[in-house]
Amino acid sequence: MRRSLLVLALAAAMALPLAASAQGAAWPAKPIRLLVGFPGGSTPDIAARAIAEPLSRALGQPVVVDNRAGASGNIAADIVAKAADDHTIGIVINGNLTSSKMLYSRLPYDPAKDFTYLSLIATAPLVLVAQNSLPSGAAFFDAARKAGDTWSYGSVGVGSVGHLGTELLKSKVPGMKAVHVPYQGNPQVVTDLIGNQIQFALIPPGVALPQIKAGKLKAIGLTSGRSPLAPEIPPLADAGVKDLNLEVWVALLAPATLSKPAQERITKELAVIMKAPEVRQKLFEQGWQAVGTSPEGMQVRVKEEAAIMSRIISSQGIKLQ
After folding, report:
1. What is this structure's pTM?
2. Which domains does the chain have, with CATH numbers?
């Protein structure tokens, strides 16, 4: 019996290193796929490529950007939600997590249940820009009230942040009734603004500032407090629009099934990466302010913004399909 116990003890001791190795297998074990739901050169793509290389160095595995454009980023978000290899992550925009579920009757993923939130990557306020012939500050909104529905505004599509954000703005300016005109992209919005086909629009600083500096468009204000991205532009609160705080952002997430070691490793490395001067500068040059949040901080941001968008979508009866 003593000999049998000794044999069992030796066998158990030999198995311990193997078990420990299996349980503590290093992550990542292979290249990581970073899905982006927009084409190359888009803002989400720029953000993805800004973090891909430093994240690859930190993790010791390639981080491969995979562009799967379509449905305002929802196609890529759905691929991430359904990934089961523990090596798939994705970049998303506001709408994928805050408004898509309310806009689409058959959204294939649940923003609240199907993801592991990792971190916000970059944020930017929107800039309210208008035709040069229109007044500035509070006088702009006085003119908008008087114009009623003879004024129109542009956005990159129904349900976009520019669309929903302007409807939110209108809800805070009683009597403002400008009509929405959807476009394929911000370049088309800017062209029609300069051509006096529409009166105003909410667009990102990276798009707005070159036109403002060239004297082609007028800045009315920012949808946030003062921003280092556009320090010369006042917040809309200065023009009398109170309690409006809206930003566009990109964030990093993973499937809900992401392992705990993977989540902890990514968030740990991201906290360092998002403080790196070269990453912050790269994003800043594209009109974005680099941020780094905890998963919990990202959850709070999504929840608060989803509640705001829900009220606007419901009150206006906005639907996509």
Report:
1. 0.86
2. 32-124+249-316 (3.40.190.150), 127-239 (3.40.190.10)
